[in-house]
Design goal:
Number of helices: 2
Distance between the termini: 77 Å
Number of domains: 2
Shape: elongated
Strand order of the largest sheet: 1-2
Largest sheet: 2 strands, antiparallel
Length: 97
């Protein structure tokens, strides 16, 4: 099972998850406790941001960033070359009298 954050509430000496856990009976899990502040129930904007972050894909690796920027660099050169080409073609034209 992948690691995920689950909001829980402490009631009557027990932790109660605020969402379905989809665990098998007797399945063992590891729990790391941390207080939420401010409570997500009191701040819907933070709750929405938290849900968005939890559903987001992992950040790209450094190698992936280098590959992307390398492509961008060659694309930038292509655009600059095309602009220079257009500039030279239009400057060689003489205006009609």
């Amino acid at each position: 099972m992948a690691t995920r954050n689950v909001e829980m509430i402490y009631e009557n000496g027990m932790l109660r998850p605020l969402e379905q856990l989809n665990l098998q009976e007797g399945e063992r899990i590891r729990v790391e406790l941390g207080r939420t502040w401010p409570p997500t129930d009191d701040n819907p904007v933070l709750a929405a941001i938290r849900r968005e972050l939890e559903s987001a894909e992992a950040a790209p690796s450094l190698e992936e960033v280098h590959a992307i920027t390398a492509k961008m660099s060659s694309l930038s050169k292509t655009i600059i070359d095309e602009r220079e080409e257009r500039c030279c073609h239009t400057s060689s034209l003489t205006p009609a009298d």
